[in-house]
Amino acid sequence: SMGMQGICERLRLNIGYTTPVFIYVEDARLGIAYYILGISVLLYVVVYDFAYGNQYLELEQPVGTIRMSFRMPTDRCDPLKNTCRLVLKNTSDMPYCLSDHRPAGVKDAPQVLP
To answer: What is the full DSSP assignment across 84-114?
Structure first.
């Protein structure tokens, strides 16, 4: 039978993992080159790409369709069935028809029907 030491050895071999090694370089020339390169890349991306070139934006024309449908005013039934009744109200019973107040910038719609 395998003892506790053998089990631990086997677990170490099968459940391993790697870690990065960090090294501190004490060379002024490499340090200056490293920071100049990093700042140059940051300035290129922020100033040129984002602020000046807008390279992160894809400019495309929107493509789509508009669908509009009208339904007869009914008492919540299918208007195509014979048993469905029309529910027509008098315009004086509809407060939005009486109001002449419109939000700023809203104009009368052009006539669609003759």
So the answer is: --B----GGG-HHHH-----TT--PPPP---
CA torsion angle 41 43 47 49 (round to 10): 0
For residue 65, CA distances in Å to 3, 31, 59 come to: 74, 57, 19
Cα dihedral sign, 44-46-50-56:
positive
pTM: 0.33
- Report CA-CA distances (Å) from 45 to 36, 37, 52: 14, 12, 10
Residue with the bigger pLDDT between 84 and 4: it is 84
